[in-house]
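ok trying again, last paste got cut off:
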Amino acid sequence: LFFFGRGGGGGVGGGLFFFFFFVSSSSSGFCFFFSEVMDDNNLNDEIDRLSNELLEKSDLLRSMRRGEAERCDSAAIASAKMEVKDLNRRLGSLLRRRDAGVDKDEGVFDRVGTESLMKRRFFVTPSFEIYGGIAGLYDYGPPGCSVKSNLVQVWKNHFVVQESMLEIEGTCLTPEPVLKASGHVDRFTDLMVKDTETQECYRADHILKAQLEKIIDDAATAEDRKEDAEGVLAVLDELDADDMDDAIKTWDVRATETGNKLSAAFPFNLMFGTQIGPSGLVKGFLRPETAQGIFVNFKRLLDFNGSRLPFACAQIGLSFRNEIAPRAGLLRVREFMQAEIEHFVHPQKKNHAKFDSVKDYSLALFPRRQQLTTRTTVQTTIGDAVANGIIDNETLAFYIARTSMFCEKVGLNKDHIRFREHLENEMAHYATECWDLEVNCSHGWIECAGLADRSCYDLQSHSESSKIELSAREIYSEVKTVEYLKALPNKGVMGKEFKKDAQLVMKALESMSEDKVASTQSQFDSGAESVSVEVADGRSFSVTKDMISYEKAIKKESGMNYYPSVIEPSFGVGRILYCIFEHSYYVREGDDEARGVLRFPPIVAPIKAAVLPLSKNEVFNPIATRVGQALGACGLIYRIDDTGASIGKRYARFDELGTPFGITVDFDSVNDSTVTLRERDSMRQVRGDIDGIVQSIFSMVSGTSSWSDVETIFPSFSAAEE
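nice, full thing came through this time. structure:
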């Protein structure tokens, strides 16, 4: 429904205004949007007002999730979450209007040049290209494979080795019950639509978003229609299948290639299903993430670590997601490498032993408060971020700092990375805090890693599903007397209701954890007529309020069992790799043509040194071979290029590959066994003996010295222009 009018001098402004009421047939409530054609001052005032209200409601929701508010029951949390979502929708619409005329940061990254070079020099290519290729699948060529391998090795050294982590390698095939327990079977979906004629598939929110943005950007579109489009964009992530169908019809969204009508939207599970074994009776999936392999092995990992916490376990491997319509190159693929860490820690002891080593490290944070108000990042030290409550605990903050250090090490521009806190409406129900590593590139700000405090959800879910306890035990220094909440079954009522199953239900109540007992009491206090109780054989029974009572009891404890919380840094290797390419690529102007260069740090460069004889004269071969053998003995990948091209053109070839160093063998080399060493970006050269030059390259690749250090050791050398 749409209402239009003109405001007076009071209220939030004296301009034109209109109201939108969006009624969803699939929900019990309605969404309300208020928008107004107001001047910049009034618009900013309204943004400030909504921002403050949203911050207040978000803080309340966070307190409720932590059990710190006056009401923490599920109904109150659901109501508060709906309020936060509604406020976020309204604020998002106003922010989009405010930022509509702001110039984008264009021209910083060259997507066309970068991707052209990547394909031309065989860093990466579409899989099965001679058969037409398959969207979302890519093959890495020799230099791409080398860069990716180097990136993974740097990651392992930076995290696994330096932080003394455990590491496992799990299978890619996962049986259905595991992913049922993790929630992937039921919830790992996106809405999909199809071209009604060709059956081409589209992700519903993406194709709707493209249509809405096209309408908004069209100068001929009426202002009221633009406002309508902005309102839908603000709630795009909240639309269910029925709402999506209504929006697609309202905005006349058609298939991109053909212009045909689209089918109704329906949920599509993104996992690749398969059958394990010849009978086909065991249903499984290719894993959508590597994390579950760590969770299900927690008991063995804890034993291996001497039953001590905290500890961290890493896993690097392939994951698979059947993306509906991957159209963003390496940023959205169906098979990708993940590098994940699961750090297990006591829920009340999330300090980190090495926090002092990173507390003075400065980085750009994008907290939820700034997202909703100034829309700018905050430059702060990691210690201040924890002290001021921006980041909740030391362990999560430690990994955020270490992640930023890793990004710098592998060649990402620190000015174009930030850590964005999830808004309350983005948070998974089990998470207490989440931050995304976002990297700016030609595609905008791209999530390349997620760092989350997942609480104890995963271990608890797998314990309940598998009936194998995945908990840890804390031993007290002395015996404690503690008070606890106890559930008392009404045996008479239960006996009449459940008959032979009554004993099973009563045993389930007696063995129930204190948290679960408190949860059932809270549900009854909130008006629930019954609660579900699962018994040992997996069946569930509805227990009514007259069947159970509660009392406080006293017991002595020498220790306690608990589910550890999990701090999870999860990295998308392919996304980080692509952003490194864009951040490294630049064009160097030459005498005859512009030359593309990849400014890879030596540690990730696919080829560490190019050995270039001055010409094809065979007199250079023994020296070139000797240099190559010396490089190989140090574990440095090299290539000898003795083609007939000029030395300048050969340098340019290796600059495109990101090779940081070039060694030239000339006639003086034959006489005195010295060679010249050229640095890629400055193009300056020095001259020295073979062993000294090779050792200097090794030091620069390993990060123990720099080019400026080398220039103080060897004399500079001037050569003809390249």
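cool. Residues 1-37 have pLDDT under 50 and may be disordered. The first strand starts at residue 2 and ends at 6.
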